[in-house]
Amino acid sequence: MAEEPVPHPLDPPKRPQGRGEATGSHRIVGKKAPRRRIAKWPIACLVLVVLVAIGVFGWNWADGELNTRAEAQAKACSAGDTPLRVIVTPSIEKPLRAAADRWNNAATVVRDHCVIIQIDALPSASVLDGLVGRTNLDSIGGLPAAWIPESSYWVTELNTAKPELVGSPAQSVATARSADYPLVGLAGKNIDEVQMRASQTFRQFLQQPAQQADFAAAGIKAT
Hints:
Helices cover 41% and strands 17% of the residues. It has a domain of 144 residues: D-Maltodextrin-Binding Protein, domain 2 (3-Layer(aba) Sandwich). It is built from six helices and eight strands, in the order αβαββαβαβββααβ. Keywords: Membrane, Transmembrane, Transmembrane helix.
């Protein structure tokens, strides 16, 4: 067996091969290969496309929803508009006009009719005189579909003198001291079933929280 040559003292020492350095490799021991960075603009473009798609979908959905509601409302009012004239005592004119505006803006439907509330404010004594014939009915603008005096006293007087004019029982919608503000639906010429039903629905509407808050703001207690 050939003897291994003895290294010369001036020769450089041999370095052992490590895991990070292989024969013929240009890698440097202990250094990691640089990571390849991913470009950010394709991701940004993708996000933008997704957002645009969501926006278009949302717009189309909202537009379709509004059209569906409009069509449903048009179908609900298939019988057209019906006026509902309500005479009220002047002390509750403000909250009643606010309630009527809210009702009309909502296009409230009663038996396929969009009922439009009209509020007139007149003293209860004048209204009673017109209803029972002490004065001309034209003095109060004709027969209203509903009446809200400040007290049940006026309803009792009407029921005694002209019971045929009472279309539905009176019911209080608010109170203040000695006042109970009853709403009574009236009956007679030019008042049809839709108006009679609408006057009862409007009375229920006045007893809801939003309208009761209007009464409270005017210094009138809720029912």
